[in-house]
User: What shape does this take?
Amino acid sequence: MTSFDIAAITTELEHLLNDARIDNIYQTNPRILLLKLRCPAQPTAQLVIEAGKRIHLTSYSFTTPPKPPAFCMALRKYLRNARIAKVQQHEFERIMIIGLRGRGGEYQLISELFGEGNIILVGPENEIVQALVYRRMRDRNVIPKQKFAYPPPSGRNPVNLGPEDLDQIKEFGQLSVVKALTRFLSLGGLYAEEVLLRADVDKNTPCKDLKKEEIDTIFTKLHDLVTEVVEDKVRPRVIIDYEGRWIDVTPVPLKRYAHLEYSTYGTLSKALDEYYTRTSTQEKVERVEKRAEQELERVTTILHDQEKALEDLRDKAELDRKIGDIMYRHLNELQFLLQRTMSEKRSGGTWEEIIAKLQDEKKDSRSPATYFDHLIPESLTLQVSVENQSFQLDLEKSVQENALSHYEGAKKAERKLVGVGKAIEQTQVEIGKLRNLMVEESERASKPPSIMPKREWYEKFRWFHSSDGFLVIGGRDASTNRVLVRRYMKTDDIVFHTDIPGAP
Assistant: This one.
């Protein structure tokens, strides 16, 4: 919410919530407070405050945690049954102050709606009683029992600005007038542009080049816009872009959005309520979908790894069996090569001499040296190449034993194939369930909160409708009986049976 939005909602809430009593306080998540209010001669109201973001009445139901957080419990201690004495904006900043009269004196519930935001309860002596977030900062501290101080102003208050004050904008020199307005005044970029559009001044004009009549026009348009908002001349609307997305809420029509569609509302609270409900729902859907996509990606990666493992095991089983078959087809030649190699080693030959002799015989195409590739003394293995297939022979085993090792390797890989195949099936089932869950969660998240049911005035008593269509009301106790008699005794449409506790 901009400072203009807060100025408009402050005026609106000041009218609607004057002398309202805080019935209860809820904290729906770490940043959102919900105040349940009883307003004089009005239905129960709910005020939602989201730190750093928004404040408005809401007609929607919120899910509350079973155990209230400590901050919520502290606010209940001090503010339950307190009455709202005033609602005001601090110096046209994005700060709203709700003044409250409670049993312990006068309190202020201060909502900071800029940056990360905060909600601070300030006591009768201007000391900080509780805060949503405690911080130590360069210009002030939000610490329990310390005196509360407002943050430094973001600029001059446009409400108190005089025509001659705006002449100082020329001191910004080469800086564009739109940037200078945001620095000089408590205006956001949107409303700085709006003022310049209404004044028909190019926003990129350097401040030093502004003419006197242009500065006067800027002041006039700024004053008109501020007056329109502050004096409750609002015409709230939700702005809709070309793709049908809700992109903003404005308390008054803005020239900046003149080319876009919009929906109008009777109060700014209603516009904000609908806007934040829709956008929050969309954000929730996006979070749910992103989380689900990440989980789906994780499981899909597992499936790919399993499929790769399955392929590798098949290749290994096929290769081991193929090598075993090759060994048996060339059993005699390979056995002779093994025996001869080991025999020469036992006769005192060095590995270098044995390798050199085999290489010479291979050059002469003498069998079985033609199968020889190289010899690895450290592992006592002989690398051979037969039928275009390269493999190793353990010099300490017979060819049959070497072949058996490969057949065993093939069988082991085939046994693993069964387990990996079952794991793939389970992963595929999990992916299917996850896809269905994604759809269900997305549909569930896309449903907006339910609208809080409207309570009739008599629902706080005991009541029923008779067979003749009469509304029959009775107090829940002696206190509510007295309320019934005192408030409604003179009402012609109500017939009292006065033989009840507390009745005169």
Q: What stands out?
A: The chain has ten helices and 19 strands.
